[in-house]
Write a structure and sequence with these properties.
By secondary structure, the chain is mainly α. The chain has two domains: about 5-180 and about 280-310, HUPs (Rossmann fold, 3-Layer(aba) Sandwich); about 195-275, Tyrosyl-Transfer RNA Synthetase, CATH 1.10.240. Helices cover about 55% and strands about 10% of the residues. The protein has helices spanning about 20-30, 45, 55-70, 85-95, 100-105, 110-115, 120-135, 150-165, 205-215, 225-235, 240-250, 255-280, 285-310, and strands at about 5-10, 35-40, 80, 140-145, 175-180, 220, 225. The strands form three sheets. Strands 1-2-3 form a three-stranded parallel beta sheet. Strands 4-5 form a two-stranded parallel sheet. Helix 3 (about 55-70) packs across helix 12. The mean pLDDT is about 95. The protein binds adenosine monophosphate (AMP) and tryptophan. Adenosine monophosphate binds near residues 24, 148, 184 and 193.
């Protein structure tokens, strides 16, 4: 039996951190054997905020290496660039034509930008429809994403449903796979780990960065247990041995931080090495991505032909 289809993407906007990994990326690796996985670099979405060519190029290359570094296996998962499948922009346009403005105005990301009084480009406004196209064009069964993407997935389902209603059954409605039980990963200051707060531990941190960031963790404590250190530690060590460690070292914040540093080094080290190997593998990575783009264009072609037929965009067979 053919495997079910999994689709997901990440915007290439800089170095991932532990929050991104445990909140979203890890699922891709965990699920790659079970599903026909299609994981892309959302470079068209990144254009809504990045207008520096070399920055976008660099971030795109980096994200491909990050995917490989966390352990996505290009023999199992297809790793491609969103812009290599331009059909999605055509499909997004069609979706724009069947979606009302008030509906899109209810999107959180748009509302946030509006309250911050940002100058909002049309790409930001239409963002959820391009995302819908990314997913629906594959007839995806599942879409693993972080919690913050929940509404975008609802929009994708609504959009697929609306198209099906107007033009006939065409798209499969995807199921979100959201790690509800992953609590928000705290940063070194106890707030949500986020690039914009300057409180991150990079996913591919060097040993020195691991040491420095752990030493900078704010140690507010409860009954001798430094809560932030514990919360980060709990991501990479099982609860039983963790509780034993913190029980035995109650109040010894420096020792507990040392233990976290050691565990982070063992956790991050192999991923960092794997990423480096790929980085040094010559043209291999480029070839993987080019090949994947080619394959994905072929895969979505027939769906787009069906969409064109159903909407009346062709007059020949
Ligand atoms: P961002 O870098 O904020 O665009 O987030 C990319 C993905 O990582 C999203 O799907 C988020 O849900 C997830 N993520 C980001 N920061 C955290 C965090 N501190 N804890 C858990 N998940 C996070
Ligand atoms: N909006 C997602 C994010 O910011 C990225 C994304 C674009 C995506 N298209 C997608 C995720 C399709 C899943 C499926 O993280």
């Amino acid at each position: 039996m053919a495997k079910k289809i999994l689709v997901s993407g990440v915007k290439p906007t800089g170095r991932p951190h532990l929050g991104n990994y445990f909140g979203a990326l890890k699922q891709f690796v965990d699920l790659q054997n079970e599903y026909d996985s299609r994981i892309f670099v959302a470079n068209l979405h990144a254009l809504t905020s990045v207008t520096d060519k070399s920055e976008l190029e660099k971030n795109t290359k980096d994200l491909v290496l990050d995917y490989l570094g966390i352990g996505l296996d290009p023999k199992r998962a297809t790793i491609y660039l969103q812009s290599d499948v331009p059909h999605v922009t055509e499909l997004a346009w069609i979706f724009e034509c069947i979606t009302t403005v008030p509906y899109l105005e209810r999107a959180h990301a748009f509302k946030d930008a509006e309250t911050k009084n940002k100058e909002i480009n049309a790409g930001v406004f239409n963002y959820p429809l391009l995302m819908s196209a990314d997913i629906l064009v594959h007839d995806a069964d599942v879409v693993p994403v972080g919690k913050d993407q929940k509404q975008h997935l609802e929009i994708s389902r609504d959009t697929g449903e609306k198209f099906n209603r107007l033009f006939g059954e065409t798209f499969k409605l995807p199921e979100p796979l959201i790690l509800e039980d992953v609590a928000t990963v705290p940063g070194t200051d106890g707030q949500k780990m986020s690039k914009s707060y300057g409180n991150i531990i990079p996913l591919f941190a060097t040993d020195k960065e691991i040491e420095e960031s752990v030493m900078s963790i704010v140690t507010d404590s409860s009954a001798g247990v430094p809560t932030n250190v514990y919360a980060i530690h709990s991501l990479i060590r099982d609860k039983e041995s963790l509780d034993k460690l913190y029980e035995e070292n109650r109040g010894k914040y420096k020792d507990l931080k040392e233990a976290l540093i050691q565990d982070l080094k063992s956790f991050i080290g192999p991923m960092r090495e794997r990423r480096k190997e790929w980085e040094e593998s010559g043209d291999k990575v480029r070839d993987i991505v080019v090949e994947a783009g080619h394959k994905m264009r072929q895969v979505v072609h027939s769906k787009m032909m069906e969409v064109r037929k159903r909407t009346g965009l062709i007059h020949h067979e």
